[in-house]
Write a structure and sequence with these properties.
CATH topology of the largest domain in chain B: Rieske Iron-sulfur Protein
CATH class of the largest domain in chain B: Mainly Beta
Strand content of chain B: 25-35%
Mean pLDDT of chain A: 91
CATH architecture of the largest domain in chain A: Up-down Bundle
Structural class of chain A: mainly alpha
CATH topology of the largest domain in chain A: Cytochrome Bc1 Complex, Chain C
Order of helices and strands of chain B: HEEEEEEEEEE
CATH superfamily of the largest domain in chain A: Cytochrome Bc1 Complex, Chain C
Order of helices and strands of chain A: HHEHHHHHHHEHHHHHHHHHHEEHHHH
Number of helices of chain A: 23
Number of domains of chain B: 2
Largest interface: A-B, 39 and 30 residues
Number of strands of chain B: 10
Low-confidence stretches of chain B: none
Shape of chain B: elongated
Largest sheet of chain B: 4 strands, antiparallel
Number of helices of chain B: 1
Distance between the termini of chain A: 70 Å
Helix content of chain A: 55-70%
Structural class of chain B: alpha+beta
Helix content of chain B: 10-25%
Strand content of chain A: under 5%
Radius of gyration of chain B: 32 Å
Radius of gyration of chain A: 30 Å
Largest sheet of chain A: 2 strands, antiparallel
Number of strands of chain A: 4
Number of domains of chain A: 3
Oligomer: heterodimer
Amino acid sequence: MRQKFHQVIEAIDDRTGLHTGLRKFLYEEIPASSGWHQVFGSVALFLILIQFFTGMILAFNYAPTPGEAYNSLRYILTEVTAGRLMRGLHHWGASMIIVVVVLHMVQVFLWGAYKKPREGTWIAGVVLLLLTLAYGLTGYLLPWDNRAYWGTVVTTQIGATVPLAGPYVTQLLASAGGIGAVTFARFFALHVLLLPPATLLLIALHVYLVRRHGVAPALEDELKPKKSFYPEQVFKDTVAVFIAFAILFIMAIAVRVPLERVADPTDTSYIPRPEWYFLFLFQTLKVFEGPLEVVGTVVLPTLAILALIAAPFIDRSRLVRVRQRTLAIGIVVLAGLGWAGLTAAAIRSTPPQTAAALIDFSGPTQWMQLTPAQLNGVGFYRQEKCGECHNVTGGTPKQGPNLLGAARRHDDAWLIAHFKQPSGAAMPPVHLTDAQLKDLVALIKVMTPDNGDVIDTAPDFAVEGAMLYQKSFCGGCHAVNGEGGKMGPALNGLATRRTEAWVVEHFENPRKMSPGTPMPAYPFARPDMQNMVSYLFTLPDKAP
Amino acid sequence: MSDHFPSATNSVETAGYTRRSWHLAAIYVLGAIMGLALAIPTILYLFIPPRQRRRSQWIDAGDVSQLTPGSPVEMSFQEGRIDGWRVITEKKTAWVVKEANNQIVAFGPQCTHLGCAYHWDNGSKKFACPCHSSFFSIEGQVLAGPAPRPLDRYATRIENNRLQIGQLKRSASA
């Protein structure tokens, strides 16, 4: 058996040279000092392959046009088996590559591994870092939610400020008149058609150069015998790859990546924010204002890239031990501190995103279709703990009857009378006013097996907001989801017309904000006001 | 596969050899775990049909109070069909008949032979398919031609004199 196997391998090798090639690749000699500090390159390569794979898998169910992109991603997240996992791997993999690539560069920098004759390897690596960032920028738009849209608005506007090249960047990204179908197509093409082959080519060059010059030796290596890359270093690389993969996999399962509201160019309340690894640049932009803006957007990043490329030409000192490279260590520490400081400042100084903006549209959103009365009913349902004895959708049978069945059998009047004086002995009377009971009945009547989960999924702020809305009789003048008065404007689509701050001020002083309005002032207390405004901002743009 | 590679260090010491096999085993096991962790979700992703969104079962097709027994009417209605992440609204038709006992029947609009659109021939009082001359009675039974089974019927119900149409059910072979 083993004999046969060898013969087959040899026969294939005679014709293709695959086996000899693989052997040559694996039995590369590496310096005795090689070890755990050199695993990052392999991990980065592995993560890039994971990105290629998960990206391709996502594309199997993805429509790369605005609007459809959002719907198809939502389909991947909510209907396709393992779709959320694949998206999680792709999303967190992107962040992880940045971390690992930076660690790889820091290692090479600290050990002085970029020194002559390895300048070319280093420069190819710097270009690969830039490509990685380009993936991040172009991929950011592809979910086509508000976060994607507004983040990209900022990106393209920064591109437009580049001296001389600005108009050409705008032309290339088709972003002169805002971000639309053409911009989207360009970003998609860059992300999946241009960048991957470019990356592969540069990785090939990078690895070829590593092999050509050999793994950089340390000072003490001269007297020691060389080691083999396989299997000892491959073992270390595999362990590192495995740890990275395990972290990535756990994050993809445990940390949910939300899908925000579909991209809305008219949304005036959205606060754009870049991905975490761009926050430090975002913060630098705040320092340079007016005519100096270009310093933050173009000059400093360009200088930083040039400094990286120039590093091996500036540092021409002879090889010393890592611990003696105090200047290099100092530079890395300073850069790390600077990055951390800017990032922390950016996080601190950005106002928190509103509750309405943070709703995950890849989760249940049926509650948004409810009228304020029905949502008020959800509030009373929870307050009166109806769920302790009754089911709505399936689940283990409870003491009381399933409410969907009850709602079909009885009319509103019967239900209200029953709540006040239950016919069965087991149920205690519900102590609510007639108006409140009416809302509870309105909820029970609208529930179906499809939307019964609103009881559990409606967020607290929306329920509280709706309860306040009912208590304040807003529905006397305003309509929400097709129900309510016509004297005031309908409130669906409020988010596209006004900012949250405007609405808050309007509640407190209506005549100041819209002169001549008959609306009285509603100076709600702060948490109430926040709930109310957040609730109004989650209403669908059009009444269903 | 690797054990017939020549030992690179030329070391024949047992300690070195054990260490080497341990490294090889770890490489293969960790590699296999990662391969499975990717392969299994990929297979699920590609081969498990997506979860179906539920949608309303009954589609309003129109008023049937004016129908008279013995004269079928072609009625059209809009059906929302789920196509991946889209809901496509399609125009569909049904031949609606009021039977002698005032029951309403809605036939699928395709001949059961090869799917041609048939029509009601008022002269001969038959459903006639132009493609291969299949004929059906007003009850949908095959009278002549190659059609293998009676006309398919939609599930129907009447609410306030309006016909509501449900699933198209394949008729049993005659």
